[in-house]
Specification:
Length: 194
Amino acid sequence: MKALRIHHLIFLLLLIVIVVATGMIESVWTQRNYDALPDMYASVPVDAQTHRWNTAFKNRDENPATGTVSRSDTVAADIAPFLQPYMSDSARQAAVEAALPRGEKIYRVFCEPCHGNAGLGDGVMTQHGYPPPPSLLSDATRARVDSSLYRIVRDGQGNMPSYSAQITPVDSWRCVSYVRSLQNKKPQTGGGTP
């Protein structure tokens, strides 16, 4: 008994308890034994067109979380909301001017790294081996209609990726308006196609 010490006995007793307890546990493989978060997979559905559904739908925009993007800004629009055909020229000009500050912010974040501060295609990325993009002040870019520039921002072209996941449609139009303002500030330059 000298070889069998007290800690060996304790280990043996624990092993016996584990084996017996394992044998006593009933295994039902088709059923969960314990649900830590039952609401994660068995949530109470909300029936559409009911009072509860309408109340939830109406109230969800009242207190949005910080950084929430408005649903109205995420709906795809083929016409800039500030360039509607029914607007007078003075109202259109005022709306475009009001959109320029936001358009400039969008341009600075997403376009300037490649196209450069003035839109000449000399951004920081070109200093790191990225192929230079075309100048936004070229005759070919000036000749494009606004909807063509909008689609390039949304869908990408050539080496330029799509920004539809990062920029809302309304902000894409604002960015196009800012590019047009850059073109109006600078004299025309020759260059490649955008």
